[in-house]
């Protein structure tokens, strides 16, 4: 009887720690919402890039920031839709 309760506890404990989303995805999402992704605007703030190097890598003519890169850029938003797909 004691063994059955111990087994049930282990099964419940494993269920509580099981996540549907991988840890690296959770960390990436957290960094995205906290604006800690190293986009070109953030790299310029840290003096890694020059002002002239802030443009989007898709050459769409807009400066690259979090919102542009993941939501408004015509090239990358299409790419994200394919990945989510």
Can you walk through the features of this model?
The chain is an all-alpha fold. The chain has one domain (22-84). The chain contains 5 helices and no strands. The longest helix has 16 residues, at 2-17. The chain starts with a helix and ends with a helix. The mean pLDDT is 81.
The SS-based structural class is mainly alpha
- Tally of helical segments: 5
Note the beta-strand portion.
Answer: under 5%
Overall helicity: 55-70%
Element pattern in H and E: HHHHH
Based on CA atoms alone, the radius of gyration comes out at: 21 Å
Cα end-to-end separation: 48 Å
Total strands: 0
Q: Largest beta sheet, briefly?
A: none
Mean pLDDT: 81
**Domain count:** 1
Which regions contain 5 or more consecutive residues with pLDDT less than 50?
none
Based on Cα principal axes, name the global outline: flat
Briefly say what this structure is.
The protein has one domain. 60% of the residues lie in helices and 0% in strands.
What features would you highlight for this structure?
85 residues; mainly alpha
Topology:
Elements: H1 2-17, H2 23-33, H3 40-45, H4 66-72, H5 74-84
Helix pairs in contact: 4-5
């Amino acid at each position: 009887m004691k063994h059955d309760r111990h087994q049930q506890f282990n099964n419940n404990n494993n269920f509580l720690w099981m996540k549907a989303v991988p840890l690296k995805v959770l960390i990436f999402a957290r960094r995205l919402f906290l604006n800690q992704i190293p986009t070109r605007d953030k790299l310029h703030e840290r003096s890694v890039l020059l002002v002239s190097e802030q443009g989007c890598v898709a050459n769409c003519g807009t400066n690259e920031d979090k919102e542009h890169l993941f939501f408004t850029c015509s090239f990358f938003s299409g790419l994200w839709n394919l990945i989510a797909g």
